[in-house]
Write a structure and sequence with these properties.
mainly alpha, Helix Hairpins, 4 helices, 53% helix, two-stranded antiparallel ribbon
Amino acid sequence: MSETLGPDTEDSVGCESESREYPERSVLTYDWETISRELTEKIGPHPDKKDYFDHICSEVLEAHADWTNDYFYGHDHEGKPIGMASELADIMILTMALAEICKIDLKAALEEKINYFMEKE
């Protein structure tokens, strides 16, 4: 779980007060299959799939709390990323791990869903 964020948190920034520079390499160009496998190995399996869903739900609640409190980007005193952006990243990482364990081609599912939304009138 993430630390509680507050006004005295080091390097915490609200969304409107910081312009972000992002690396030239887009997250969309990553080799998602390799990353999913490696992350799943690194974070280790939860005892069962329900635990992944529970963990994802807790990260959604943490992201919502950060959004409610205007804590979008930041780092704690040890340099750990915190804030809504970090919680959204946790959600994606756990979702990728769950998809890997369930043998779901998440890239194909995303492409299918994006195409559906793009073609929807």
